[in-house]
UniProtKB/TrEMBL annotation:
A Pfam family: DUF2252
Superkingdom assignment: Bacteria
Comp. bias regions, Polar residues: 13-24
Compositional bias ranges of the Basic and acidic residues kind: 1-10
Protein name in UniProt: DUF2252 domain-containing protein
InterPro entries (alphabetical): DUF2252 (IPR018721)
Record region (Disordered): 1-24
Length: 489
């Protein structure tokens, strides 16, 4: 599909980058907390010492935290686009699991008040079971890995595993699984995390940990070797490989009255930006180009910008400033970029959720892509970021879709769900193992079943708290305290 001839805005302009664009590349997210000059043996012994100070039994104790759920949500939403809030609330109200997915800042505050070993690694910050999925490597191989990093940062390893376990409970309840079965799945997930972390440091070199493959074909081969994978895997794999930019064009665009290819509107989810915003985004993409590799910048020199819309996605991020940019190449092919607002991590009203590893200086867009590149085996080559000095807002950029696909948890049977939870725990351990400090975690957690029992006990108690919070939210939503006007999906 090709555009009619018209004057388009080139993505890469033939001019020197502005001083502000040059400044972008000088920003650095500080990773010094995970760099440690110790041998693996020394790290393991450090973990033993931490366990003496923070035994597993302490991890099992859920400490009740007083906070106002509704006012906290309202504070978060004060930074979001107001016309999207009714639809955001509708998504949060869909189920306790949906509510949990969309209120990560609430659990972050609660976790900051719990007992923790406080061993730092690069964490996802939002490692719930729905935040793993398929995507394409630069070599066009289909990978499966963590795929959401808005809350990623340097933090305590157990924040990720606890969020994974609570999500297993809530998703398992949605599937109608028994309490005993869910607890069994949780324990298996923790034991998988322990086993993989042990393999990473006992059996693999630093390079082998780095080169670990998350390619789907490798996972499918593992099934033939006796390791069970979800039965939905092959079907999703076939669906994912067809999700490229040209399919985005077919699904999301139309020809306007002047014969131009443009995005199709679907208010309030998808709307065209104003002329002023269009120009701002075009200018900001010049800053973005300073953060990508030279080969990607050369590739972009062949494209011009054809259209831009605000396009909202997700649950927790629904209402943030997200955009789609349609690019057309000199040969008539297309590429669609997604620009997502990068909010500060931990943003709950009146509650300090900073930790000893929190940083104030770095750009949030840079934080997100830095952590993503550490945690994922391979990442989108188009990842980049920019900062809007006028508004103080940060953004990161990536390719839209491009073989991205998620597992529909609601279509899983009990066996699929149990296997899927273990795969997520495996990938979480592999991601954490990229931080040298994960050797301390290995020494701390060992292979003892006491760890699983403690974390499962805590997670089961916290899941009850989520249900209480969800009911408080639902009451505010049902009574109209929170916006609930009907909106198009």
């Amino acid at each position: 599909m090709k555009l009619n001839t018209r004057k388009e805005r080139p993505l890469m302009q033939n001019k020197q980058p502005s001083s502000s664009a040059q400044q972008v590349s000088s920003l650095r997210y500080d990773l010094s907390e995970i760099r440690i000059n110790k041998t693996v043996s020394e790290l393991i012994h450090m973990g033993h010492d931490v366990r003496d100070k923070v035994p597993f039994e302490k991890l099992a104790q859920f400490k009740q935290v007083n906070r106002d759920v509704v006012s906290g949500i309202e504070h978060v939403e004060s930074k979001l686009i107001s016309e999207l809030l009714p639809l955001r609330h509708k998504r949060l109200a869909a189920s306790p699991f949906s509510f949990f997915r969309g209120t990560d800042e609430l659990m972050a505050y609660d976790l900051s008040n719990q007992e923790s070993s406080n061993i730092p690694v690069v964490i996802s910050g939002d490692a719930h079971i729905g935040n793993f999925g398929f995507y394409a490597s630069p070599e066009r191989k289909l990978l499966f890995d963590l795929n959401d990093f808005d809350e990623s940062t340097i933090g305590a390893w157990d924040w990720d595993i606890r969020r994974l376990l609570v999500s297993v409970i809530l998703a398992g309840e949605q599937l109608g699984l028994s309490h005993d079965k869910i607890s069994s799945i949780e324990k298996a997930a923790v034991e998988t995390y322990q086993e993989i972390l042990s393999q990473c440091f006992d059996d693999h070199s630093a390079l082998e940990r780095y080169y670990f493959s998350t390619e789907v074909e490798s996972f499918l081969k593992a099934e033939a070797d006796g390791n069970s994978l979800p039965k939905l895997w092959e079907k999703i794999k076939n669906s994912a490989v067809s999700r490229d930019s040209e399919k985005v064009v077919k699904k999301f665009t139309t020809i306007d009255t002047q014969g131009h290819l443009v995005f199709r509107e679907n208010p309030p989810k998808t709307v065209h930006v104003s002329k002023k915003r269009y120009g701002q985004i075009v200018d900001h993409l010049q800053k973005y180009l300073q953060t990508v590799s030279p080969d990607v910048a050369v590739l972009f020199s062949q494209f011009h910008i054809s259209d831009i819309v605000r396009h909202s996605v997700g649950v927790g991020s629904f209402g943030t400033r997200c955009y789609l940019v349609l690019l057309t190449a000199i040969d008539g092919s297309h590429l669609v970029l997604q620009i997502k607002e990068a909010l500060q991590t931990r943003r709950f009203q009146g509650f300090d959720v900073t930790t000893k590893y929190s940083q104030n200086g770095p750009d949030n867009g840079e934080r997100i892509i830095t952590c993503q590149q550490v945690l994922q085996r391979a990442s989108d080559p188009f990842l980049g970021f920019y900062h809007n000095e006028d508004t103080g807002r940060s953004f990161y950029v990536r390719q839209f879709w491009d073989m991205k696909e998620s597992v529909n948890l609601e279509k899983m049977d009990e066996e699929d769900f149990a296997n899927y939870a273990k795969i997520c725990a495996l990938l979480l351990a592999r991601g954490h193992a990229q931080s040298p400090t994960a050797g301390i975690i290995h020494g701390y957690i060992g292979k003892k079943k006491k760890l699983a029992n403690s974390l499962v006990t805590w997670s089961n108690d916290y899941a009850k708290q989520v249900h209480k919070d969800y009911q408080l939210f639902k009451e505010a939503f049902d009574t109209g305290k929170l916006a609930r006007e009907e909106a198009n999906a």
